[in-house]
Specification:
CATH class of the largest domain: Alpha Beta
Number of helices: 10
Number of strands: 14
Radius of gyration: 20 Å
CATH architecture of the largest domain: 2-Layer Sandwich
CATH topology of the largest domain: Dihydrodipicolinate Reductase, domain 2
CATH superfamily of the largest domain: Dihydrodipicolinate Reductase, domain 2
Number of domains: 2
Strand content: 15-25%
Largest sheet: 6 strands, parallel
Oligomer: single chain
Structural class: alpha/beta
């Protein structure tokens, strides 16, 4: 028998993408339920060639499903994930609520799928931060080959990382500026149209933002606790697709050509790196794609064993929904979902 599955937060941008990817990848589900808050009850959602009618998560019987993919925010997850596990289902959570919990696996399937075995501890698996996911896919083969000592990166994160409200604000402000309307930031702290904002999430005591802190602690948990990482995270006026300029200090030499070959052979990656116009990937080209793209691979002569690369991915797909579905596939393949 197949898996019975629910998508909690199905009406949001990531929830809708999860439903699309489940259908695209032919996930073997006997039943799929779309869940959200009561105000979204009755909303119709596409699932392949089917239409699902959204149910109220508050009244849903979670004992009828084997797996719940959650994308409903940290507060909702902290309240509901333990209740769902107590009802007998596994939870894959897309919020930041459980990522630093030592009893909860934090998983990028191409990098540390074996960590899924730890789900038996608490019944919850955490989906990492969007930028962390694409960075881990790119860094894993390099770390295995040459050992990464230090990562210094700057992110260029799209407005969809702030949900539908972020994309709507970019659209509204862009239109408004052309007709001399006043700019009224709401989803972001400053004007996002025709601007960049070096501020994602709240500020911490050391001056870093929480988004920057997440990348550091999640890299250590997923890849290697010895890796040092410093990030500057920036919101840019792009609808979908995150980019990262990555600078590495390696334990052992790895030249650019060998790095390209290594990355081409690695799961989840596509290398497009020609020294010519259009010989690299931008967010526009990554939208709707499963892969994480790598371009601009260069040796950095300013540090010993230095390497630089440009990493781009669809943050709603690999940065959220696709990674969650891949985790579900990993649970199924490892016999960690007890199908009904």
């Amino acid at each position: 028998m197949g898996v019975k599955l629910a998508v909690f937060g199905a009406t949001g941008a990531v929830g809708r993408e999860i439903l699309t990817i489940l259908a695209e990848r032919l996930f073997p589900a006997d039943e799929v339920y779309a869940l959200a808050s009561r105000r979204s009850m009755g909303t119709e959602l596409s699932y392949g060639d089917k239409t699902l009618v959204c149910k109220d998560a508050e009244t849903f019987d979670f004992s009828t499903v084997d797996l719940v993919l959650m994308s409903a925010g940290g507060d909702v997850s902290r309240e509901w994930a333990p209740k769902i596990v107590a009802a007998g289902a596994r939870v894959v959570d897309n919020s930041s609520a459980w990522r630093t919990d030592p009893q909860v696996p934090l998983v990028v399937p191409e990098v540390n799928v074996e960590a899924l075995d730890g789900v038996t501890e608490k019944g919850i698996i955490a989906n990492p931060n969007c930028s962390t996911i694409q960075l881990m896919v790119a860094l894993k083969p390099i770390h295995d080959r040459a050992g990464i000592q230090r990562v210094n990166c700057s992110t260029y994160q799209s407005t969809s990382g702030a949900g539908q409200a972020g994309m709507d604000e970019l659209w509204t402000q862009t239109k408004g500026i052309y007709v001399n309307d006043s700019v009224d930031p709401q989803a972001f702290t400053k004007q996002i149209a025709f601007n960049v904002i070096p501020h994602i999430d709240v500020f911490m005591e050391d001056g870093s933002t929480k988004e920057e802190w997440k990348m550091m602690v999640e890299t250590k948990k997923i890849l290697d606790p010895k890796i040092k990482l410093f990030a500057t995270c920036v919101r840019v006026p792009v609808f979908v697709g995150h980019s990262i300029a990555v600078h590495l200090e390696l334990e052992n030499p790895l030249d650019a050509e060998e790095a390209r070959s290594l990355l081409r052979e690695s799961p989840g990656l596509m290398v497009i790196d020609k020294h010519e116009d259009e010989g690299y990937v931008t967010p526009v080209e990554c939208v709707g794609e499963f892969a994480t793209f790598v371009s601009r691979v260069r040796e950095d002569p300013t540090v010993e064993n230095g390497l630089a690369l440009w990493v781009v991915s669809d943050n709603l797909r690999k940065g959220a929904a696709l990674n969650a579905v891949q985790i579900a596939e990993g649970l199924l393949n490892r016999g960690l979902i007890a199908s009904s």
